[in-house]
């Protein structure tokens, strides 16, 4: 691991330079893991390590112990060549950095850490191999940057007087790019000599530095913001440094706070867009290079926002909630897995709070839980709230009726919660502007008086279970966003209500269209007049039968030509109206036509000049894709000129695909990058012969397709599944990823199949039930990943060269294999074997004297597996060892404590004959142990010697012993344990206080499926315990009821208590 340092003063461009390096595709090719972390002033080894781990795993982390954090981070980095950027580092304590550096040493050679800092001393303690000192820009370069932002086309010649003043202003910027850019952006709209002279002579250039490291140029930029923009900018202080801000989301928050006013016939959203773009133009926000809808604040700009907002805004971080004051109006925080009442106990100080904003680190698959005390006890007290965001809390099933008393509420986000109903009182929130219910899949109905929300502008009910719209929805005249409209057969709002919503924009899905009473009703929806709609989904029921009237209905649903995306699903007409595919829809980039099973022809989609993504699915009546697909007879447009991705799927009668022109160049698809052809039992004719830009080709379930594969010189990835085996003889040579499978009758792979594949790195065979052998020519020497699935007759090729292989998966295959020779794989990191019926052992010859580099071994569902190599596994890098359902295995590898010195994770499950751990015990570095359904092993638990394992932090134990009445025995558990999971002890009645009281580091306790358990320890749990989860323990559930149960007083001090998925504390 090498460190590269970038040193320079704030605003000099360190972060910008690091971003250029980090986002460069040439750089990314050299690393298989990248992470970016903003460190900033308040350096704490624990906090920084946790932030790095979250950046690496893309999920939140609740570990509260530094050692555990480091162990976990090491494991995530182990065996990977990583690039880590530590941005804006301040700490120069050598000991702290050595502790942090220790976590990076598990990466492979070539890993890099880039450090940006303002202090050369900070760089030196990291012992960099290179230090780049960024200097201030020379005056002329600084002037050029300033001019680029101050003048159109960077041209100052038309404003020579301004140039004289501007060059003096540039000298005040002292060569700092951020200062030059910010001041240039400020003056762009002020091409007046007096205005420029005022900036030059401003006292802020000489102001004392009471704002910390805030540049005078940034203060000037803020000073000259229009008043409405000042409060919008200050509000952004609720976002942490390096947080990705989405423009549309921020505008809705500004609107809810009353920062936006309508004027000159512009909507508040349009005003908000202008405000935001104004801040961007002044360089107070920077657009993300990876996503144009994402924006980031420079850390110095974030400092400025925090400075000017003062005590009015507060970010709830760590243990600083006590700093909340009565003045606090806006609060934000990052969700953690369990947000208990303790986290919010100081909110009682801030009863005038206007913003309560929970943030999530994107992207996150984490499950979050919120204490019910917040919604039922604290929330009713926050009567001044305008913004309330409680998204992604999976245990939130309802809102209290008191929500209707928060009269000022304008923004409510309950997305991705388990809310089943909304209280009727929500309809009293007459000021509500935004209601987000995205992903509330248990929500089946909206309150019937929704029409009373007369100021509602945005209603998102995507991915809910709502069956019909409430009546009189057309009275919500302010609605801009209505993501979904469901047409009911008997009640609710009819489709004509949409015609009253003239301001709709963005995305609209209209579902259950078979319930439209008549084409006239459809016409009354007025889709053709909704010029701001960008995405439209039209969907009928899956069981709708063929109907001639549906064509007329669909004709009446023609949208405005500004549309960018169209999806049609389960349309039951025999033909598609002419507007679908008409060249006047010049802005459409995405189209999905699905399950139009009665249509015989495809519309002329080649006429759409901007179409980039196309899916055609379930057109059962189509026999031939011919010239009609490319264009209408009178069109001169080059068909599919912009198309990048096309998917054909489930067209049961399709037999032929005709090329656009007679020449063999396939000119209609010159920019196509991905082609998917799936589930076509009758397709026989050839494909278009030439795809010059094709990168990925997938052909699945096309047994009659025997023609040559298209020429695709750029092809990188290919999948051939359940096709004619003749295609295997014609594979392109430059591929890097290849998956073949479903060739049931194939006994051997074609001899030339692997020849010339000099770039192949990933190869997968699957579902070849008759396949018996590999090609004699062997596998390519470049291969790094090999996966074999459901090829039971395949003879494992012991004579092949596997010297380059790094990952190997053997799933339900190679029944003849009885011994797996580890010595054939000198570079293998990962071994995963599952369902190999006759595998008996892993083997290493006695004469093999080298250590293996393997870091992960998994063996699952191998009924005859009995042994590991005699003498032990020489795998000093092994970190993960997992054996499941090997029911005659009697012992684990010998000398684990000697050979497996890096082992962190041990999981043994459903191995009933394993009686004990090997002589000498377990490796001392173990961090996690799971012993589940191993009756004999659990019976000998007294001899496990867990007390001799100082690094064990997590223990899961599950058994069926009828003899255990109390658990755990005194002295059984290791002192440093932080997580304990107990499951399936049918006779256990109580938890033993003597076995738990010494666990002074225990943070989480999970108890599951112990039906007779009814008593907690007499003296309660260790004070360190912050989370208790109880599932399927009916007696305990009753005795631990909040404030009522007999055992409640023993657990009342615990931050989070969850019983059967309900967070009761």
UniProtKB/TrEMBL annotation:
Signal peptide: none annotated. It comes from the Eukaryota. GO terms for molecular function: ADP binding. The keyword Hydrolase does not apply. Keywords: Leucine-rich repeat, Plant defense, Repeat. GO terms for biological process: defense response. The keyword Transcription regulation does not apply. Residues 495-618 form the R13L1/DRL21-like LRR repeat region domain. Residues 238-305 form the Disease resistance protein winged helix domain. Residues 3-154 form the NB-ARC domain. This is CC-NBS-LRR protein. It comes from Lithocarpus litseifolius.
